[in-house]
């Protein structure tokens, strides 16, 4: 699974989207719900650190079981430290990929796919390895 840089976020003004002030039930619909129109700032919801945030487009299917599909956009924060189990964008010898970060009991690093059709990738000690950032959101196309 590869990623392509779409944009670096430098939004200095709010990114406002109209939003009715109502929750949408996933069960039975409510036919008589009152609502009032407001707006929400997507920067507040999607971005923690604007200067360190990127949007990348994903190609491939190695992360489908994590809900990340071919053509989706991911929001990546470079200011976050990857923790065990974080989904990260990493570069191995200059090739970018998105995988789940794992360290085994022996201290070896692994990049794990979320699709059984793809093998885990060991992080060789002699490789040029970099974690570009931690994935914080996926903008999934439906």
Can you give a write-up of this model?
By secondary structure, the chain is mainly beta. Helix content is 4%, strand content 43%. It has one helix and ten strands; from the N terminus they run E-E-E-H-E-E-E-E-E-E-E. The chain has one helix at residues 42-46, and strands spanning 2-8, 16-20, 37-41, 53-59, 73-77, 87-92, 95-103, 109-112, 121-122, 129-139. Strand 6 (87-92) and strand 7 (95-103) form a beta hairpin. The longest helix has 5 residues, at 42-46. It is globular. The two termini are 19 Å apart. The mean pLDDT is 83.
Q: How would you summarize the topology of this molecule?
A:
Layout: E1 2-8, E2 16-20, E3 37-41, H1 42-46, E4 53-59, E5 73-77, E6 87-92, E7 95-103, E8 109-112, E9 121-122, E10 129-139
Ends: how far apart? 19 Å
Rg estimate, integer Å? 18 Å
Outline, from the CA principal axes?
A: globular
Strand content: 35-45%
What share of residues is helical?
under 10%
What's the β-strand tally? 10
The overall pLDDT, averaged over residues, is 83
Low-confidence residue ranges: none
How are helices and strands ordered from N to C? EEEHEEEEEEE
Main beta sheet:
8 strands, antiparallel
- Class by alpha and beta content: mainly beta
Question: Strand sequence of the main sheet, in spatial order?
Answer: 1-4-5-10-6-7-8-9
The number of helical segments is 1
């Amino acid at each position: 699974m590869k990623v392509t840089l779409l944009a670096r976020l430098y939004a200095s003004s709010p990114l406002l989207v109209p939003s009715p002030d109502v929750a949408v039930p996933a069960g039975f619909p409510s036919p008589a719900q009152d609502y009032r129109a407001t707006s929400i700032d997507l920067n507040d919801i999607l971005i923690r650190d604007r200067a360190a945030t990127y949007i990348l487009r994903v190609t491939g299917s190695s992360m489908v079981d994590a809900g990340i599909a071919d053509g989706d956009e991911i929001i990546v924060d470079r200011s976050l430290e990857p923790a065990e189990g974080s989904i990260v964008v990493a570069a191995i010898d200059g090739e970018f990929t998105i995988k789940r970060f794992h360290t085994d009991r022996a201290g070896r690093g692994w990049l794990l796919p979320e699709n059984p059709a793809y093998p885990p990738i060991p992080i060789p000690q002699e490789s040029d390895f970099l974690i570009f950032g931690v994935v914080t959101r996926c903008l999934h196309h439906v």
